[in-house]
Design brief:
Blueprint lengths: L5 E12 L2 E7 L10 E7 L2 H4 L12 E4 L5 E5 L2 H6 L3 E3 L2 E4 L2 H5 L4
Parallel strand pairs: 2-7, 3-5
Antiparallel strand pairs: 1-2, 1-3, 4-5, 4-6
């Protein structure tokens, strides 16, 4: 499988909600509100995120982490992710900035 992806630097903030860690990928540095760690997040092109030439996806894309690194990538399905050898990041959000995470419908 040869997919075109958008490789971008995001800032990773980990927030604990109900005892579970949520990985929040922010397009802009969250300072001074939060401290974010720069990470690589490879996103699918917009036309592939919710379907495309391969058909309609079953839901929102999933994010995987390459084992032992801080490199992340978006996949259309969990099966694509596991076949490629990545680890599933089950709780995550991808936002433009910290305000988008705090008030997603504002």
């Amino acid at each position: 499988m040869n997919q075109m992806i958008e490789s971008t630097c995001y800032y990773l903030v980990v927030e604990i909600q109900g005892g579970d860690a949520v990985l929040i990928f922010l397009g802009k540095d969250p300072a001074p509100d939060r401290e974010g760690e720069p990470v690589e997040l490879d996103l699918l092109p917009p036309c592939e995120r919710f379907g495309g030439t391969g058909g309609v996806a079953s839901g929102r894309p999933v994010i995987g982490r390459w084992p032992g690194t801080m490199r992340f990538r978006q996949f259309r399905t969990v099966s694509e992710l596991t076949q490629a050898g990545w680890e599933l990041v089950s709780r995550h959000r991808v936002c433009d900035c910290w305000d988008d995470y705090q008030s997603p419908w504002a």
